[in-house]
């Protein structure tokens, strides 16, 4: 912990600060820096904490809801004023401050090197930090990203120098008065804040005027040059570094002398005190970033050496190699402005093999930026050989006219009509699956964007090796199934599953099948066995979560009259099909004046699903009313098992782990007046409606621990209302995760992880999921 006194914020010295949006690449490093200054820091995020988590943990930043002792709330500018925690802070009289304003406040008495500009500031900041560390200069730093190695994203130094990446996007740059300002370049961006390019000019002219010592700018950046010219004419002076054009003049000059597999050799001139330097990075754009970093290093009093950046580790998501599979290489990059994309694709083009293609997956960032630059985005993306568009990542913005991925798609169709472009509105997972079917050895696939696309590249790459079949083989298998089914039943490819589940999330099934009868179902199992393809049953779609990437297998739904039978046995027992909805079972029994099944009415599933999970409600369990079950094993053989032969426990039937129920005979119902049965069902229905959320959900997420309640533990841990994206811990029943609109499976799974972790931390109890992770094992994600 730093022994220096904590800075005053808002005229006070708060002990505890709480951050909202703590997983962000601006918020996370600031939280680390604050904790290392000696503040007590906590934080929360509506999205996955992801790679920022270990750095927050090491710094002692506690993840969770705002504690009662919070004295100041700091937040990302992407957090709207209606955020629940901001509302709580307002009600409690706790002051709030934006991330950039707080950074400026804590650095007020430091010697600040502010690295800013439109493209490359994170890399330039990281290069300067790396050079200082290599030279043993104990400066502090606050990066707006993560290094690729174990260099912390923020560190408190032992001298007064602090290198900080400063963001102009939200206007908080106005709070900084640096000693040295480094402007890598300027490009009109953030039209939500800067309505005109001249607004950006005004902001940076003011920053230059507040800079105490010198400003480093690129003389190849027209907008920077325009601002500098205006300042120089008014008597200001600047040190300037030239861009990578031989013959440019300036205080610090340089050019790329050589580029090889290990990186760049820069030739240096002007005020540089060394003739050349090695940089472990590629492309002229990174050469320019290195010139800026080396010039700032020298201005800070450092003594340059040729190898300061020879081991530069790089920055995460800046031309980062995710990996290779099937001779396909995958890169990810944070580029989200047309100029950045143009530079990125130009650099990557040189690395693509002669036989390969440069394929781009692009997720636009913010609706306002997309509306402003859709034509420029199309022109930049046209440099690729293949383009795959994902939906816009709104970053808290509401959609605006002309600012959707469909608008970029239209621009691409006009600008490059022969360019292969994939875009499936509202179905990002479908777009990625289609891409997986098209790649071939030698291709390079670049995942590009600043939203949640960072969580897509690695799973997509892994899917190339884990999917049991390629697209052509799936097509052939589906066609073979159609031949088996004949005119009866249904077979489809890439059938969306989200709408077939009660949670309304997830991707598609490679093959979806509705066999007409048990004979056809047996054929599905045998065909799947012969191809090594899993066969999964889908009932009503409750009590399960479908992954965003979908299901690599044959998903079978027992739909139709053959599977929904309801017949009364001579002794008033009920013979029911596995596809019969529990709600319909109860209604039919009530109509016949048979009681004993009413507790099943509110369970949103089918008989088959209830048998597999031993579904229960209102104190009753499925196997309380079962006499025998007809099951089909994976070879297609049918057996009739009496209740006594079935090993049943809480939410589990052992005999149905690797087999499927196709029919059951239920114990005789007790004759009663039909109206009385219906009234009892109404009582159960109202009780369930009052106690459970009405939003889409998968039912109870976690099993009840022995002698305890999962919902009670989650509630007592203060997690009701905890949200990740569109997924939220229900405020009605804490053991439900509800889809508040637009949730993804990734949101739900991250929320499951967070709930388990926080309940374990608070109570020592490890909750285990009750719902199925469809087509996967929970151990893969927990």
Q: Roughly what percent helix?
A: 25-40%
| Proportion of residues in β-strands | 15-25%
Distance between the termini: 32 Å
Mean pLDDT: 82
Secondary structure: number of strands: 42
Placed side by side, the strands forming the largest sheet appear as 8-7-9-6-10-11-12
Radius of gyration: 30 Å
Number of helices: 20
> Helix/strand-derived class?
alpha/beta
Could you say which overall geometry the principal axes of the C-alpha atoms support? globular
Query: Runs with pLDDT <50, length 5+?
Result: 1-5, 233-249
Q: So what's the oligomer here? A: single chain
How would you describe this structure to a colleague?
The strands form 11 sheets. The protein has a 7-stranded mixed β-sheet with strand order 8-7-9-6-10-11-12, sandwiched between helices. A 6-stranded mixed β-sheet has the order 16-17-21-18-19-20, with helices on both faces. A 5-stranded parallel β-sheet has the order 3-2-1-4-5, sandwiched between helices. The chain has 20 helices and 42 strands. It has 782 residues and is an alpha/beta fold. Helix 16 runs antiparallel to helix 18.
List the helices and strands and how they pair.
Blueprint: E1 16-20, H1 27-37, E2 40-44, H2 53-59, E3 62-63, E4 72-75, H3 84-92, E5 96-98, H4 99-106, E6 111-116, H5 121-135, E7 140-142, E8 154-155, E9 161-165, E10 180-183, H6 197-210, E11 214-218, H7 222-233, E12 239-241, E13 252-260, E14 263-270, E15 276-279, H8 284-299, E16 320-325, E17 328-333, H9 338-349, E18 358-363, H10 367-381, E19 386-389, H11 405-415, E20 421-422, H12 428-438, E21 444-449, H13 457-466, H14 471-485, E22 490-496, E23 508-514, H15 518-531, E24 535-538, E25 544-545, E26 551-557, E27 566-568, E28 574-577, H16 582-591, E29 594-595, H17 607-613, E30 616-617, E31 620-621, E32 626-633, E33 638-642, E34 648-649, E35 652-653, E36 659-666, E37 670-671, H18 674-691, E38 697-700, H19 710-716, E39 723-724, E40 727-729, E41 736-739, H20 745-763, E42 772-773
Parallel strand pairs: 1-2, 1-4, 2-3, 4-5, 6-9, 6-10, 7-9, 10-11, 11-12, 17-21, 18-19, 18-21, 19-20, 23-26, 24-26, 25-42
Antiparallel strand pairs: 7-8, 13-14, 14-15, 16-17, 22-23, 27-28, 28-36, 29-37, 30-31, 32-33, 32-36, 34-35, 38-41, 39-40, 40-41
Helix pairs in contact: 5-8, 6-7, 9-10, 10-11, 14-15, 16-18
């Amino acid at each position: 912990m730093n022994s220096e006194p904590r800075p005053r914020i808002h005229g006070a010295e708060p002990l505890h600060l709480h951050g909202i949006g703590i997983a962000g690449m601006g918020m996370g490093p600031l939280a680390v820096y604050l904790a290392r200054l000696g503040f007590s820091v906590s934080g929360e995020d509506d999205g996955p904490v992801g790679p920022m988590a270990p750095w927050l943990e090491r710094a002692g930043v506690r993840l969770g809801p705002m504690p009662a002792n919070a004295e100041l709330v700091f937040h990302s500018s992407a957090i709207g004023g209606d955020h629940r925690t901001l509302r709580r802070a307002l009600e409690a009289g706790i002051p709030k401050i934006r991330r950039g304003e707080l950074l400026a406040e804590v650095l007020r008495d430091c010697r600040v090197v502010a690295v800013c500009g439109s493209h490359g500031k994170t890399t330039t900041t990281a290069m300067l930090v790396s050079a200082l560390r290599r030279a043993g200069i104990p400066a502090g730093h606050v990066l707006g990203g993560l290094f690729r190695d174990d260099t912390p994203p923020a560190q408190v130094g032992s001298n007064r120098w602090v290198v900080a990446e400063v963001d102009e996007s939200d206007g908080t740059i106005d709070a900084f008065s640096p000693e040295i300002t480094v402007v890598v370049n300027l490009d009109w961006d953030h039209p939500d804040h800067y309505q005109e390019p001249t607004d950006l000019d005004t902001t940076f002219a003011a920053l230059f005027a507040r800079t105490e010592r010198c400003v480093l700018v690129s003389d190849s950046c027209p907008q920077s040059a325009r601002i500098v010219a205006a300042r120089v004419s008014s008597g200001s002076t600047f040190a300037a570094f030239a861009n990578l054009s031989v013959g440019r003049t300036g205080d610090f000059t340089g050019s790329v002398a050589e580029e090889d597999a290990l990186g760049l050799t820069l030739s240096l001139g002007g005020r540089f005190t060394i003739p050349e330097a090695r940089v472990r990075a590629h492309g002229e754009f990174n050469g320019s970033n290195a010139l800026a970093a080396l010039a700032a290093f020298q201005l800070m009093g450092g003594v340059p050496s040729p190898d300061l950046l020879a081991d530069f580790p790089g920055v995460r998501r800046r031309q980062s190699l995710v990996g290779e599979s099937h001779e396909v290489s995958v890169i990810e990059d944070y580029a989200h402005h047309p100029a950045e994309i143009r530079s990125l694709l130009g650099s990557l083009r040189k690395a693509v093999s002669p036989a390969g293609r440069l394929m781009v997956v692009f997720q636009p960032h913010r609706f306002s930026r997309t509306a402003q630059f859709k034509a420029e985005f199309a022109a930049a993306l046209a440099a690729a050989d293949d383009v795959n568009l994902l939906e816009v990542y709104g970053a808290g913005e509401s959609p605006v006219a002309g600012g959707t991925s469909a608008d970029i798609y239209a621009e691409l169709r006009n600008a490059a009509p022969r360019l292969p472009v994939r875009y499936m509105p509202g179905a990002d997972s479908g777009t990625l699956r289609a891409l997986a079917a098209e790649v071939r050895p030698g291709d390079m696939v670049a995942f590009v964007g600043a939203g949640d696309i960072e969580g897509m590249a690695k799973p997509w790459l892994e899917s190339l090796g884990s999917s049991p079949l390629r697209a052509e083989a799936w097509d052939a298998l589906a066609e073979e199934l159609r031949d088996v089914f004949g005119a009866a039943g249904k077979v489809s490819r890439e059938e969306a599953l989200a709408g077939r589940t009660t949670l309304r999330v997830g991707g598609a099934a490679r093959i979806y099948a509705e066999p007409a009868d048990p004979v056809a179902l047996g054929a599905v199992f045998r065909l799947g066995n012969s191809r090594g393809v899993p066969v999964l049953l889908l009932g009503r779609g409750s009590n399960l979560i479908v992954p965003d990437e979908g299901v690599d297998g044959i998903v079978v739904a027992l739909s139709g009259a053959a599977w929904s039978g309801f017949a009364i046995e001579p002794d008033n027992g009920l013979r029911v099909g596995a596809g019969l909805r529990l709600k319909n079972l109860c209604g039919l029994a009530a109509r016949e004046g048979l009681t004993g099944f009413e507790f099943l009415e509110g369970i949103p599933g089918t008989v088959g699903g209830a048998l597999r999970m031993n579904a229960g409600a209102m104190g009753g369990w499925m196997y309380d009313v079962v006499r025998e079950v007809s099951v089909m094993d994976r070879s297609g053989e049918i057996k009739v098992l009496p209740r006594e032969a079935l090993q049943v426990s809480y939410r589990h039937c052992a005999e149905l782990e690797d087999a499927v129920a196709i029919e059951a005979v239920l114990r005789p119902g007790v004759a009663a007046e039909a109206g009385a049965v219906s009234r009892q069902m109404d009582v159960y229905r109202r009780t369930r409606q009052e106690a459970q959320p009405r939003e889409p959900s998968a039912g109870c997420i976690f099993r009840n621990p022995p002698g305890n309640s999962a919902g009670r533990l989650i509630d007592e841990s203060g997690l009701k209302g905890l949200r990740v994206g569109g997924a939220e811990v229900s405020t009605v029943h804490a053991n439900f995760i509800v889809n508040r609109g637009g949730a993804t499976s990734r949101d739900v799974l991250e929320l499951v992880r967070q709930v388990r972790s926080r309940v374990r931390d608070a109570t020592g109890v490890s909750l285990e999921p009750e719902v199925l992770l469809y087509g996967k094992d929970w151990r893969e994600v927990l």
